Amino acid sequence: MSLLEVQESILETVSDGEPLAVPRMRPASGGPHPLIVMFMDKPGIREALRAFGCRLAANGYDVVLPDLYHRHGRMIGYSPAELAADPGAQDQLMTLMMSLTDDGIQNDLDAALAAVSADRPAGSVASAGCIGFCLGARAVFRTMMRLPDQFKAGAMWHPSFLVDGEPDSPHLTAGGLAGSLYAGFGEADRMMSVASMQPFIQAVSALGDRVTIDILPGADHAYTWPNAPTYNEAAAERAWSQTLALFGGVLGPARG
Questions:
Q1: pLDDT digits over 94-141, tens only?
Q2: CA separation for the pair 203, 205 (Å, rounded)
């Protein structure tokens, strides 16, 4: 089937008293299309995320991307070239990432949902999916746990921060996960190794066939992004196929 034409816009809203931009990518016609919330990774809002969202939208999804760094500025983000050119960028991004909290991200999610709901038929966001990269994978988990009746499918790409020392660590609470999950781990991930993620992997594997744990051969962290030095096309395309199968199976046909 041919891909759909995509329409892009930015929803403007407020979260925790600060302006929040929510890039939106959706099919230009038809609908309502299944809603997907996309959670960013450390480099922030940038062209690679926009391109990924457009690819999802071209396959029939209404995609929204909350700007999680909005408390520090509008749509802060760095491409690999920009990171290489700015010696202080990595330190800034680390500071921004460490400022994020589960509660703050969930507040941003709620604001984004309210904004997109105002532009969709009543009740059409009652069933949704979510996808996240690196730190965004933790947001996927928190979202599915907090809103299980709404978020019935989630995809994690090169996940991070799923095993920590807190009582509510994802690996300790995963037994309560109600939805369907895809988690694509890079076999050669040097930032969050498969070994370090084993407590979470074991916890969700016990949930049965509604969870797919995918160890992607030879893939490093951030295997997703074509312009990144760690891009792994085979891993990214396998994760893509698994994610589309998940969303299509749980949320229904995406096109139309």
A1: 999 999 999 999 999 999 999 999 999 999 999 999 999 999 999 999
A2: 6
Give per-residue pLDDT as tens, 32-75. Answer: 999 999 999 999 999 999 999 999 999 999 999 999 999 999 99
Cβ atoms of 182 and 214 within 8 Å: the answer is yes
- For tokens 């109600």, name the residue: 178
Chain-centroid distance of CA 40 in Å reads 6
Cβ neighbourhood burial of 83 (10 Å; 0-12, 13-18, 19+): middle
63 with 50: CB under 8 angstroms? no
Residue 251, sorted as left (phi over 0), alpha (psi -120 to 50) or beta, turns out to be: alpha
Chain centre distance of CA 110: 15
